[in-house]
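Subject: Sanity check before I submit

Could someone independently write out the structure tokens for this chain? I want to compare against mine line by line before I put it in a report. The sequence has 683 residues.
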Amino acid sequence: MGKIVMPKNSALLNEIESVLHIYHEANDWLTNAIYKEHLKAMIGSDQYQSSYTKKAQITSYFGFTVWEDINNPQSRRRITESGKKMYEAITESNTDKIQEVLMNALETVRFGRHNYGCPESNSDVEPPALYIRAIMDLGYLTYREFAFLLWKLEDVGGNYTDTLAELRELRNQGPITLSEEANRYADCKPIMILMRWGFLDEDADKSGGKHIIIKPEILRKYETRLKNLKIYNIDMDVAEPIVDDDLLVHPVQSIYKTSIKSDFHRNRIIFGAPGTGKSYDLNRDKDTLLKNGGEYGRVTFHPDYSYANFVGTYKPTMLDPVNDLIVSEDEKGVLSVLLDDKTAQEKYDLLYDKFKEGDLTRLPLLLGLYNDDKFKTKKKDGSDASGDNSVERNHGRAIRPYVNLISNKKSASEITYEYVPGPFMRTYVKALKNAQTDNPKPYLLIVEEINRANVAAVFGDVFQLLDRDDDNVSEYAIQTSEDIKKYLAKELGGKPQEYSEIKIPDNMFIWATMNSADQGVYPMDTAFKRRWNFDYLGINHNENDIKGNFVTMGSEVYHREIEWNELRKAINNTLSSYKINEDKLLGPYFLSRKIVVPSSGNKINADIFISAFKSKVLMYLFDDAAKQKRASLFDGCKDATKYSSICEEFDKRGVEIFCKEIRDKFPRAMAIAGVAESAEEYK
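---
Independent answer below. Compare away.
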């Protein structure tokens, strides 16, 4: 067994009915904050703040309301189909309908575990069914007797039949005295609400406490169904805690709009000449966007980048049954014992300590799955159990043919395929998960060099999602493939068919950089461009960051101090005179900012600068921007046809390798006899 938890908060009918009224009127997912505002208006605002959230426990416990995140009591909730029926029956004062809805809940809702009203409960025992079954077997049941019954089954590890016999003996001895451990089960709000809704009743005899009975008309109407209630949820046929789960609309349909505020565009491309600081600006804006929380991912496009890389695809993975299916080290330890060549009794004794503090009655079932021989069992206190737990052991044997047991044998196939999400899908899932909370944050995907890949092929049908409406949500949904449906259901909860269409939520941002000057880039069609906001960075954008920073270059008589920004602009002016487009000019950060902006002072490290200038600036000018104008641009060189010759002369003569228009911007301090003053004289 594990741990039984039942609602401890108010079971007043007017409060529970107010909760149902709020969700019935909304008929959609409500944030906890909005729900509390409505509830305060209906029942008053003079109670503890936390109590308003807890008043929804009972409705969730019986499956009338459901949470988006069962592990987060602050998450959004909505009414279920059975909750609507219950509310309508209450407002119509339809007793028969109320009783039918409650009977359905008792048959189909799991109360011991995976229950929305008490998600921390983790027990095989179903408290409401146990109470009703005990009434039918004993004639009536008091709250103290029920507490004793729960304690024996859950904490001590006793069985139902023996505990009933013990209860009959105790009744003959007078009022039951509960231990401290048993007494914590005495406050049973679900049973109280079943009484107040007319499903259970109170007998006139109050000896030993209130005698709770099944209302006679309920017993006449539902006797067969009541007898079939399962007191252990492992015997229930349903797999989910809510009876009408298939009628619920998964939250993904209503969480695209979070109303998150931002001055930044959702779809944004920054473009400009090389070195204008596109990535620098994007990183600065990213820090501003995420200053109060959120996450970002980054990807760089290249010519071989594809839709499968960007969105996701199935890929082969090696299958290790134990490590892939069993994550917990405790579970692996249990499995190693079950697979060992020991007797069932030896295995029981080895595993007893692991299970005695929680799930002791599951141990015989587990052993029954793997072993046929008999074994003795113990109670939690170490004494021999009065029964042999044959029911649980036989359960294990009975279901063995229907389960795929993990064994030590090697699987015939060691390779499987699984959906591997790309950066778009990873960011998308994170944004949707966060959108379900009461405190949505921005999620950013940064695409560097977006036009280095064929964007139409990379984005595929996601291209349609880039059209955003006034709320910054995708205006048009797209149909999803089966693999994406299954992946989203796995990550976000729900069923695959609930993700047949998707949109981009308003808390997801996609930013990109683009440099149209580079060789090998792909063109973008007008339809794709129309879905983005373009921010152009001019050729001198960010130049204030580098102004006044100088570097020494040239050796001996050619040695001089040159301001990088002035040299860059002089080169750009010359390129412009050659009718070369602006997007091929040099931006302030064409050489990395860490090179041209000293950490202190304004003197640039000459060795690092000269090395970078040759490998980046001279190479770019020689091979790309001034490829057709080499002789003119480098007319200060003896040989402008070879890149190596240009670099060698640059080491010695610095800026004097360039044409007169550039050289004149940086004159020598004085003329020196015997040293060439002009290109012609030098040559």
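---
OP: Matches mine. For the report I'm noting this point. The first helix runs from residue 13 to 26.
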